[in-house]
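User: We ran a pulldown and think these components assemble together. Before we commit to crystallization trials, I'd like a predicted model of the whole complex to look at. Sequences follow.
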Amino acid sequence: MKQMTIALLGQPNSGKSTLFNGLTGSRQHVGNWPGKTVERKEGYFAFDGKNYTVVDLPGTYGLSANSEEEIVTREYIASGKADLVCILTDASQLERSLFMLADYTGIRTPVILLLNMMDVAEQQGKEISSTSIAKKLGIPVVPIIAADKKSYGDLFKTLKEPETISTMLDENILSDLYKRMERGVFKQVFSLLPEEGIGVYSSSWLAAKLIEQDSMAMEVVWDALSTDDRNKLTALLSQVRDGSLLTGDCKFKWIESLLRDSVAERKKGAPKRSRFDRLATSKTWGKPLSIAIIILGLVLSMVIAIPFMGLFSFLLSALSLLITHGLSDAGAPALIISLLCDGVLTAVTFALMMVVFVFGISLVFGFIEEIGYMARISYTFDNTMAKFGLQGKAIMPFIISFGCNIGGVTGTRVIDSWGQRVTTMALSWVVPCAATWGVVGLVSSVFFGSGAVFVVLSLFAVALLHMVITSKIFGKQLIKDSDRSGLIMELPPYHKPKYKNLLRFVLNRMGDVLIRALKIIILVSVLFWALSYTADGNVENSIIYTIGTFIEPVTLWFGLRWQTFMAFIASAMGKEAALGVLASLFNTSGEAAGIWAAMSGQAHVNTSSLGGALLTGISKAEALAFIYAFFFNVPCLMAVASTQQESHSVRWTFRIVGYYIVTALLMATLAYYIGLLIF
Amino acid sequence: MIKLNTAKDGETGWVASIKGNTRFLNRITSIGLTIGSEIEIIQNQEKCPVLIFNRDTVIAINRSECEKIMVEVIER
Ligand SMILES: Nc1nc2c(ncn2[C@@H]2O[C@H](COP(=O)(O)OP(=O)(O)OP(=O)(O)O)[C@@H](O)[C@H]2O)c(=O)[nH]1
Ligand SMILES: [Mg+2]
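Assistant: Here's a predicted model for the assembly, 755 residues in total across the polymer chains.
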């Protein structure tokens, strides 16, 4: 069967992913671009005896090589791997979104233009003649509604035509505009380049990019020029300062001429703003409204997730019971049963819970983005978040993290630059989730009574300081100075949500999330299980006890006894695990279960007897050290798994984990010695 | 001619000049702002990005970036 690769190219929000999902359904593969941290989405469909591969390129405003997303897009197009490029434009904002086409003109890969969002354009009273545009461009122009599969007929018809993959976009009109550019720079640069162009790029395209001071175009051209011409080129380009303005002007003139007589509009001018939008962008009400909506979103995603969580833990404990009985009847050794039920099944439960929660968060916050409100949040918090070097949208993951850090990390998905996204993840780990407060509340009230308030206040103050420092450290490596340039963003009009698309979009990802989560979580869980396994339930026979007591002289520097140190380590798996571990290690009464049960949160903890045991077991300064170590530790294994999932980078996930463990111990040490001074 | 960050709500005009480094110029033109393009100020409040309407799109631009954009206001 014949094979064909189609690449979807277009500005952000032009509907690429919607079309991608519409075309390929569930036949998708999500991975990474080789050596890059940008997500690579590929899907497949068959039509009229041909197999199609569709590549969903990252949304960028143009084809300059400034961000990693843009570089990926550029390299892919230059590679010639696509047989056909589909450029998507938003028909309701045609002039602006055609910039991508203008920026593409001169690249010699066959292209068709899709006028998406025809439904919105129609509502606005725009009449667009695709045939007239097609005539001027010399390529097929297809109106479509990506959100409505019934409208794909024209696209399929175009794909069927054999000439679709042989017609080229006419670049002459745009090149003539470039040639009339003031001071004649373009002409001079153009005359230095080989007439036939280089690779997929025409000389006109390359000359325009050179004038825009594009470094990748320079690399392409450099090898093709003689030394003499290189010098001439450098001298010419050094005179041009605002090249992008010059070429941008030509590109929009070209777009305007393209649309003249092709688009009829009812009215021009800014649309009337709704009362809600005024409120959402108001200086006084914008922020409280954002926070209220985010909290509401968090609660909603919990409501979606909790029934599933209950169901899964019920099913898995039933399964665990079955396996235990089945295997012990069959005479399997206790070690194997424990490995399967305690180690692996617990990990599966963890992973399922994570997926369910990620599902809820993705759905609710996908909805908020889908209707167009997320851009308003970004707008209202732009100034505040800029202090951390972040985008306004970063406020959302931070607030979600108060409920759960997994959700916070998942929530960073809406941030469009990778560096900013990873920095936001690193920062969101500091935010104490609900489970953190349970442990901090108990331990600090046991040791400090009403003074616990001061402990909590000090934690908040230090957490804020932590965020400032962390943003400096991570931001310095992850966020380029040029990325810090302030917000320039489109505020999309409010959309009616497309529930079906949203649900499909979220569901498509979940299988992938589950598989990756399972890998990491099973690995770590089994490791911990092995360390804490004892045949008779006596702690002193576990590897963890041996290691813990062996390294106690070192952990005491941080103010941590071996028990509190182990609780600290366990809290990196899940914050709520710390209590159970403390209880079992301090041998409190009513605690029959092994430490593994405690760690995986299955054991019931008797808090009042734990309080007593703690008071006799450790000093006030040591308690303070533990609270600090615990508070600033890695939030939980599932948050780590999500960070790896969302950042697409194992290296950075490890770095963040290492950073958190080190800083937590540092905080503990400081707290310990300050504690020694006070008490 | 005034800086964009000093424009008032409801004013209309056209972009007279844009300054800044290559990346900024690239970014701002690719979102649709070029010399001579018509804009309308939708909302300009202290400490918030300026909201403008240009080529059928509402765009938010950070205040400090607005200082690099000069606008010729059309009197009505
Ligand atoms: N009314 C309408 N809405 C659409 C249409 N196509 C897409 N949308 C909506 O437009 C929004 C953006 O669509 P996406 O598919 O996420 O856009 P994208 O091009 O993938 O965006 P990036 O991934 O950010 O580059 C979503 O809210 C879609 O539901 C359409 O034909 N009509
Ligand atoms: Mg997309």
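Chain B has a mean pLDDT of 92. That may be worth checking against your pulldown data before setting up trials.

User: Thanks, that helps.
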